Every structure is written in structure tokens, then in C-alpha cells.
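Listing S7. Sequence submitted for prediction.
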Amino acid sequence: MTKNEIAAVLEEIGMLLELEGENPFKTRAYQNGARALEAMEGAEFETRVAAGTLGELKGFGEALVDKITKLQAATEPTGLEFYAKLRARIPDGLVALLEVPSLGPKKIKALREQLGVESPEQLEAACKAGRVAGLVGFGEKTQTKLLEGLANRAAYGKRHLWWDAAAVAGPIVAGLRALPQVRRAEAAGSLRRGVETVGDLDFIVAADAKDAGAVAAITEWFCAQEGVKEVTARGETKASVRFASGLQADLRIVPTEQFAFALHHFTGSKDHNVAMRQRALARGLSLSEWGLVPDAGEGTAKEKAERGLSLNAETEADLFAHLGMGFVPPELREAMGEIEAASLPRLIELGDLRGAFHNHTTESDGRNTLAEMAAAAHALGWDYLGIADHSKASFQAHGLDEARLAAQVAAIRALNASGKAPLRIFSGVECDILPDGRLDYDDATFDELGLDYVVVSVHSAMTQSEDDMTRRIIRAIEHPRATMLGHATGRILLRREGYKVDLAKVIDAAIANRVIIELNAHPNRLDLDWRWWRRAAERGLMCAINPDAHETVGLAHVAEGVRVARKGWLTREQVLNTRDVAGVERWFRERR
């Protein structure tokens, strides 16, 4: 097993021992060991295990070293007999109880020993029977809270679209910044990194942590937010709440001098933080949410920071500079080369976009007319708008047959020629890729219509085998009239996995045929996934950020697409719709 895999097992062992009521010093030893492993260079870990010198490090006792050594030689956690026996003693349902608000290991242990509760289902039955209220340390109020928590458990376990989570986080950040006690405030976590779905929200606030009244006022405001259904935790400088949607939000209040370090730490990702800590250790420093302190000497990182030993960092840029790095945008903090890169690209920004191509009108399944969509695009400051209504095979979307499409193209040309259009309108179509890879219109129709561009997309027969789907899409890409591939995998986030397709082969075909692959910016799609873009774009794949707008407000979803494009390391040069009208016309002309 790898170092990070072993660290995860140690974390789990600590949690399982805590559920059993083990000595807290013993459980903490495993948790501390896990953190120490994460911060260790991979080469050092392998060398020390091989040489048997892991025990020379502080905190690595004989028992812990023995378990780490056995895990390193194993292929899975159960290769460690201690872990296998421990995990077998604790039912899965008991671990699931940790997800219920108001329940910690001690209360779970009491429920198990006194009522035989070992699962959420058994807990619900015990609460409804009134048996939990009679236990010492519980009572009617706790029983009611547990029932509420169990009722919402399914919702609590869900992830949330970034777009939806951002809508909740935005007003909270603005409200925190407006409080007189707050000096700085930011959202952190996966939201700040721009991950497509978000499990919870993290807010970091800088304030005078020694002013109890100020801290209490900030916490009170946070817990009283509209939509908060449950306050799940509340301490001196921390608070956690859950909204009716199941979205959890955590608040952390830190001294101003620690703000940049806390913001970086709680933005993550975990792998990025591990790599950053390793980089700090290589320079004789220890990086944590409390500061950047000398690695040697007495005391924890927190204690050293409190003694004023931390390097100063007013911003995250200062933190990175201390480690010999330029600023790493939050979107790139995924341990995918951002730390090793000699320099980072100038990532695309929303202001770079001049228009978009995959948009619908009332001619198919859109909610606004051509004129309304054009006016809305103009209001966004765009120079052009592409219209790509559905083709005839998408009958459920009122797709256009040849005659209706011809009429739409004629209307667009007339509007452009009249000088009354608020911006240049490009005529396109979202043409279905039929199950055998043919396009929904024949070549003669494409020749007669003279469309500016064609988006080819899959909307049917999504259960084909991977080989069949790959051949199907590649055949469409190889058609001389195909301009760009729409929503490459057909996924619907949190609702539907994408169809099976060999994306590497599809990307190769797109590059070879000079076909664009869109980044569908609809919050439910975000397809092609950001993880594919960096390498593909470096090899020459052109991107188009398209909102797939079905109404005027949907045009604004390009902002979501830009966020994802930034996670994919994309620059403005790699995105077609950063070009002006002449540049787009030239691309379309050369493709035809």
C-alpha cells in the first residue's frame, strides 16, 4: 500500500477505536501518525520502512511502526490482522451512525451497550418507541433531534451542484464581510476550487479571536442565516449548520495573522495540501492552518504560531512566495502538476469570452425567441451569438426538419443583413448523431443550407457498448460538416452517468479532424469533464465554452464553463469563443 493509503487506514483505525471507547491517547496516536505520514516525502517513507528507521521519528512508537510496516507490504487494509479484526467487530451500521447530527462516538457507544442500537434504522425505532429519551445524557430533546437528523439523513448524504452551492455561499460571504467585527472573509473548500459538485461549505473569517463578544456576534449571525434548519455544532471559534437542502456549512474564525494559512489549508485539496507540506518540510518548515513555522524546535505548529514564530503572510500569494512558488489559483489546487510547474499559464477569464454557439430558441425546446436571445447576449456584452436548435430526430425537443431549419437560417441571414441585429448571429444546428454514426440530415441538405457551423450530439441509444458508442461518435466527427461535438459523454451530474465511450480515441479523432469539443457549461452537465482538458488542449484540441442555453438567463451559465475551463488549465487561446467575429468566421470557413 502507498503512504497515503496507509495514512487513511490509520485515520480509520483511530475512529473505530473511539467507537469502541478506547483510551483517547491511543486513538490520538493513530490520528497523529496519519498526519505525520501525509507530510512525509514519499521517498523518505519508502527508505525508512526499508531501513527500519521509521521509529526514529517523533510519535512513531513500536506498535505503530509495526502496523505501518505490515500495511506497506500488504495490498489492502485487511492485510493487517489488527485492522481486519477491529473492523469485523464493528457493524457497518454503527459507523453510519456517525453521520447522524448530535451523535458522537461516546453516545453511540452508550446506545449500543444499553439499547443494542447498531444502525440508523435501529436508532430510529428506539427513538420512536421513546427508549432513547430515558437514557442518562439523552432526554426528550435529544431524542427529538435524533429523529429529525435521521429523517434528513438521506438529503444530508447528497452532494450539491456547484452552481446551487455558490448561490447559498455568496450571500453568506457578503454578509460576513459586512459585519463590523469581521476583517476578512472568504468561502473555501471544494466550492472555492470550483469542483463540479460540493459536499459542504467552508467559511474562513479573520477577526479578533481574543474578543469573545466579537466572536460570539459573528457566530450568532452565521447560525441565524435564512434557510438554516439545524445548528449541528457551536464552539468558541467554530460553528456548523445544515440548510433545508441538506447542505452543511462550517464557519471558522481565526486571528488575522493566520487567515491566509487557514484559507489555503481549508481550500485544499487534500492532495495539494499534502504536497505543499512536503515542499515546506524540504525547506525546514512546517506548514499548517496555523502558519509556516520552523520544523525543528519544541511545540506543535499551532503553539509555534502562537509564539510568533510563523512567517508573515498577509495573502496566499505571500505563502506561496515563502515556498519559492508563484500564486496557484484555487481551481488548480488538485495536485495535478501545479506545484511542480515552473510557471503557470494565464488562465481564461469570463471577460475573455466574446459569444457562444450552443443555444436554443422557441423553434425547438427553448423558452425565448431568436430576438430575445440576441438581445440578452448583447446585454452581456457579447459580439456574437450562435443558434443551434435541435434537429428532427430529437422529436421530443420539437426538432427542426429540413424546411423549418431552412426558414430559420433565412431569418438569421435577413436579420444580420438588416442591420437591426444587436450583434452578429451565427446560424447553426445541434444535429443528432444517429445510432450508426450518421448525421440527422443528408449531405445535400447541409450543402443547400450553408450553415455557419454544426454541433453534433448524442441524444438517443445511450446504452450502446463502449466500442459501438466510440465508433458512432468518431464517424460523426469525421463528417466534413461537423464543427464541434456537444456534451461529449451525455452525463447529467447527480442524476445520470455518462454513456460508455473511449474519450481518448474521441479526442484523438477530434484533433485529427480539427473538430472542436465543447465544454458544455450547463451546471447539470459540465461536459467534457475538466480532468481531460489540459493534456488534450496541449495536443491541439480546440474548446468552445457553450451554455446550452434554453432561455435568456441560461446564457449566463458560461461563467460556470469558464470556472471549469480554468480547472482544466485552459487559456484564452485554446477557446474558440474568445476570438472576435472575424476570427470565428475564419475558423468556420477553414473547417468547411
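Caption to Listing S7: primary sequence and predicted C-alpha cells for the chain studied. Residues 67 and 81 are 9 Å apart (CA to CA). The domain at 267-332 is CATH 3.30.210.10 (Beta Polymerase; domain 3).
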